[in-house]
Amino acid sequence: MAATTLTAATLPDLPPEVPGPSYDRSAVSVGIVHFGVGGFHRAHQAMYLDALMERGGALDWGICGVGVLEADQRMAEVTEAQDDLYTLVLKHSDGSREPRVVGSIVDYLYAPADPEAVLDRMTDPATRIVSLTVTEGGYHKNASTGEFDDRDPAIRADIDAPEGTAPRTTFGFLVEALRRRRADGTGPFTVMSCDNIQGNGHVAQAMITAYARRRDPQLADWIDAEVPFPNSMVDRITPRTTDADRAELVERFGIEDAWPVVCEPFTQWVLEDRFAAGRPRFEDVGVQVVDDVEPYELMKLRLLNASHQAIAYLGYLAGYRYAHEVAGDELFAGFTRAYMDREATPTLAPVPGVDLDDYKATLIRRFANPEIRDTLARLAAESSDRIPTWLVPVIRTNLENSRQGGHGEIERSALVVAAWARYAEGVDESGEPIEVVDTGRAEDRIAAARRYPDEPLAFLADRDLFGDLVDDERFTTAYRAHLDALHTDGARATVAALEQRLGR
C-alpha cells in the first residue's frame, strides 16, 4: 500500500476508516499550554479536547505543547513536519484497530531554542490553563519528607538566576510567566496537573509555590492565594510507540506518521472543578467533573499503578517481558488480585459510583490485553518516583491499622518491595543484565541492592524512599524473608509459596 505522509494538506487523502478533524483547525486558537507532550498526553487530554472540537465547541481551547528537555527536540521536529497532527490508535484485545487523526494540538515550542516565545505564549491572556504531564519526578518532591527538593542542578540554576535570565525548567517557566502576569494585571492561569500523583494538584501547588518562595516570597504568596491547582485522576494504559507500531500504521492504513500513539480502549479522567478563567466543557465528552477527586485517585494509584509495579518486577524476574504475559499467568494474576483485595482495598474509602470488585476485575483484563504489548521494562522504570507514592502509603496504612488491632496485611506489598530490590541488582534469574532506568538515581539503587546479602536491609534503608519502614520489625522480617526467597528459589516459586501460605 502506498503510504500518505501525515500533514494538514494530506488529510483529505486519508482512507475513510481513519477519521480526522472535521472542524476547521485554522479557527482553533490556543487556550492551553501543555508541558510534557508525550504518548499519555496525546492519548488522553489532547484526545478529549479533539472530541470536544468535533462537537463544535472548545475551538478557543487549542493546545500549544512545550518541551524543555533535550529529548523533546525530536517531538518539536515531528510536530513541525506533521502540522502538529498525529494518529491515535486504539488497540482492542481481539486484534482490531481503531485509528483517528487528532488535531487539538495546534502549536509546539521547544523551549531551549526560544524561551521568550514560550513565555509570550504563557503570558497571552488567551492562555487560561497550563497543564502538566512531567512525570512524578518532575515535581521535585522529596518522597520521605514531602518537602520541595531543590537539589536538581537545573532547578538550582533557575532559583539562583538573576531576574531576566531565561528559565530552563518547567517550574522556572511557570513561575516567571505568573510573575509577568501578576505584574501586568493579566491575572493567573490555572495549573492543571495530569500526572499519576496522589493529590497531584496539591503537590503541584506546594512544590511550585515552594520554588517561587525561593525566588520571590511575595510572588509565592500571590500564587498560593490566586492560582488554582485542581486535582485530577487520569487513566489510560499508553505504551511507548515502537517502530512496529509505525510500520503497522503504514501496512494497515497507509499512513506514514513519525510518532503515532497507541493505547488501550479504556480511558478515564476525573477532574476537580476549580479553574481561574473558565475551562472546556470536558463533561460533554465523558470526563467526570467532581468536587472531590481523592477517592478516585487513591483507587487508581493503589489498585492500578501499584499492581503494575507488582507485575513488573516479579514478572521480569520470572522471565516475562510484557504485561499481558504476566497478567495471563494464573499464578501472577492471582497474586495481583489478592494484593488488590487484601492489602490495597482496605486502605480505600468508598468511591462514589464505582463497584470496586468490577473495577479490579476490569484491571486484570486490561493488563492482559495482548495487543497493547506494554513492556515490563517501561512499568519498572523510574521506580524511585513511583513506589513511594503508590505502594508505601498502602504499607504504612496497613501497619498502622494492624497496630490498632484492625486489618493490616503487608506480606504481598513486602514482596513487591523485595522484588524491586532484586530487580535493581541489574541481573535477572537467568544471569542476563537488566537495564535499570531510574533517572538520576539508578546508580544509587543498584549499589544499595548489590549490598545483599552482606547488608540485607541496605536497599530498604533509603529513608528518602521508604521513610522509617526499615525500623519496623514486622515489615523488615517479611521483606528479608521474601528477598532471601527471591535469591534462592526465584520469583515464581516465591509467589507460589506465599499464595499457598496465605490463600485468599
Notable traits:
alpha/beta; single chain; 11% strand; 21 helices; five-stranded parallel β-sheet; 504 residues
Helix-and-strand structural type: alpha/beta
Number of strands: 13
* Largest sheet properties: 5 strands, parallel
Mean pLDDT: 96
The value of Rg in angstroms is: 23 Å
The fraction of residues assigned to DSSP E strands is 5-15%
Helix content percent band? 40-55%
Which spans have pLDDT < 50 for at least 5 consecutive residues?
none
What is the 3D form?
globular
Helices, by number, come to 21
Query: Order of strands across the biggest sheet?
Result: 6-3-2-7-8
What is the terminal-to-terminal distance? 53 Å
The protein's oligomeric status is single chain
Explain what the structure shows.
- There is one protein chain.
- 45% of the residues lie in helices and 11% in strands.
- The protein has 504 residues and is an alpha/beta fold.
- Strands 6-3-2-7-8 form a 5-stranded parallel beta sheet, sandwiched between helices. A 3-stranded mixed beta sheet has the order 5-4-11.
- α4 (115-123) crosses α6, α10 packs across α15 (383-390) and α17 (411-424) crosses α18 (442-449).
- It is globular.
Question: Would you spell out the secondary-structure blueprint of this structure?
Answer:
Layout: E1 4-5, E2 30-35, H1 39-43, H2 45-54, E3 62-67, H3 73-81, E4 86-91, E5 97-102, E6 105-110, H4 115-123, E7 129-132, H5 153-160, H6 170-184, E8 190-193, H7 200-215, H8 217-226, E9 232-235, H9 243-253, E10 255-256, E11 261-263, E12 268-272, E13 288-290, H10 294-317, H11 323-327, H12 330-344, H13 356-367, H14 376-380, H15 383-390, H16 392-403, H17 411-424, H18 442-449, H19 463-466, H20 473-488, H21 491-502
Parallel strand pairs: 1-10, 2-3, 2-7, 3-6, 4-11, 7-8, 12-13
Antiparallel strand pairs: 4-5, 9-12
Helix pairs in contact: 4-6, 6-7, 7-8, 10-12, 10-13, 10-15, 10-17, 12-21, 17-18, 17-20
